[in-house]
Amino acid sequence: MPVATHTVELYGGAMRVRLPTSMTDASDFRQVPDNQEVYTDADTGASLIVELLSRQHNVANADAGAFFYHDLAKDNGCPLDQIEGEATIELPPNAYPLLSASPSGSSGAQRCDYACLTTGLQRISKYTNEAGRENDVFVGLAVLRFTAPLSTEILVSFSCPTRVHPDSSEAKVVKRLLTEAERQSTLQQAIASLEVVEWGLFVPEE
User: Which domain of life is it from (predicted)?
Assistant: First the structure.
């Protein structure tokens, strides 16, 4: 059965994306950094984050996937040797159609000219006091890089547990695990539907 989805406005309507209707805005119940939009589904433990970062000039396109994925693993408290099956692929423009073409009337600079997707399993505990009760979590991270003078990198990350430790806090909350098809569909649809409505959201390089 297809997953019910709806269009969600991000950053005050400056961007939008299509997400499952089961995902709710995390800012409704906790503080979220200004450069992030976070949506979660408690029943499956899934979360999707759209994040805006300053351009990493020292990171080549070929290295961007691993660079940002390892940075995310560090934030998740997952040592690099606890990542399984890490793989990066370059995404073709038809995977992000609303960002791969310059908007009509623009100078041509407002488009994504390189994107990649890194996936793998990370061993993550939800809280720092749950060492030894880590869950196996699928983490997929798309990096979308833009033609200068735009100085922003867009990261789209999707995570969900594939195995929940029976003694972890997640075991009391997660009601079911997403199938591989569901998680791939959610991530791919988010990337394909991501759209910039107001380009003034991005600061041009000086």
Answer: Eukaryota
